Amino acid sequence: MTEPMGFFTDTTVCIGCKACEVACKEWNQLPAANGGVRPLSGDSYDNTRHLDGIHWRHVKFIEQFSADRRQGRWLMMSDVCKHCVRAGCLEVCPTGAIIRTEFDTVVIQSDACNGCRDCIGACPFGVIDINPVSGTAQKCTLCYDRMKVGLEPACAKACPTKSINFGTIVDLKKMAQARLGQLQHAGESRAYLYGTDEGMLGGLNSFYLLVDKPEVYGLPPDPQLPSRNLKSSAVWSTLGAVIVTLTSLISFRNRGRGDV
Amino acid sequence: MSSTFFTASPHWRWLILAYFFLGGLAAGSYFLTTLLDLFGKGRDRRLVHLGYLIAFPLVCVCGLVLTVDLGRPERFWHMLVQSETLRPMLKVYSPMSTGAWALLLFGGCAFLSFVAVLAERRRLGWPLLRQLGPPAFVGRLVTVIGALLGFYVAGYFSASMWRATPGSSSPSRIARSGRTRPFSGSPS
After folding, report:
1. What confidence score (pLDDT) does residue A226 get?
2. Which is the most buried residue in A27, A105, A127, B98, by most CB within 10 A?
3. Under 8 Å between Cβ of B65 and B22
4. Are residues A64 and A184 in contact, defined by beta-carbon separation less than 8 angstroms?
5. How far apart are CA A99 and CA A117, in angstroms?
6. Could you give the angle at which helices B137-161 and B14-39 cross, rounded to 10 degrees?
7. Test mutation, A61, A76, A118, chain B, max B CBs within 10 A
8. pLDDT by residue (tens digit) across B119-131?
9. Which helix (H) or strand (E) holds A193?
10. Which stretches of chain B drop beneath a pLDDT of 70?
11. Which residues does B156 contact at the CB level (< 8 Å), separation at least 6?
12. What ipTM was estimated for this complex?
């Protein structure tokens, strides 16, 4: 295995140009939705709205305004698969289509996936969805094909403000710490790193610099693995089995005895 | 906000609902019939026959419904056999993976019991097949294993849905409600 690779996304310098979205769709040859006519969201300048099978990068616009529109704040965040070190999708995938690569990234092999959609519900970030053209679950591959030949992912290459940074996790964490220190020194005390802590699914190989609570960006504050509830599910199912068995045995016995 | 509201809907719609219902019927029928077969009386025979006769066709429908619901139905076997290496595909910690196997094996047991009933009713002219149902030892083994697998089939999907992301079992409307909404809240 080579060194773990990933993204560090500095949301404070994102300008919401969506060049990453376009570069991603172009490189990965992702189809247009609705015959190329994107329905307008009507309540936002963002019309992509969420990640899905044909949008592997999505620049979230968090548009916050007071009721009288006098005060406002825009937060931009280029969202993508987090390539979790302990990934829920990889855990549940029943076909083995989802694998961990030599770059410590998580990739769905489209030729093995049969579209059961278990991974969609297992992802705590809502990243995966079905690509209607292939009929399989798809998401960001961290440009596995480009990394194989030493190129950086298309989105990072296209980003004009260096909001999306690509590199080894070790280098990216150093870069993120330096940027965090710089921001805090400049008085932005709310800045923090999301996903660098190994307590969060073993660490996210695509982590973020944010300036507000995770929920504001549509990110879970405490994402969990699907296996968390396996034990309790097993206990309740077994309990159900025991109750059904006892009830039916008793009723069978009474049936024989009553005989009316 | 709870972490459950940030996930997306897996679009498990009415085919899956049909599977819940029919799978529950098949598994429940087989489970209760096994109990009745092993602990019931001679006059329960007709009911026992009926239970086994119901279970197998229902399992077949379940498998069919689950296959049709896949994004790529022709690849249904990828859950049982790795498509590249042709080795068995099983993840013990994935309810969906173990569930696929349980459904297959339960279907096998249901088939054997189905055949045993037909033999007992002399619809099949090969008396040896009656060994596949109780009181023969092989028959007892088949029904007990089948009943346990049946219960697993009835239970595993709840584990698939009831996990870190209960949002996955809710309609997409609810699952998506936690996603970034513009114009929400005042600037802080």
Report:
1. 87
2. A127
3. yes
4. no
5. 16
6. 150
7. A118
8. 988 887 788 888 8
9. strand A192-194
10. 1-5, 160-188
11. A237, B95, B96, B98, B99, B102
12. 0.88
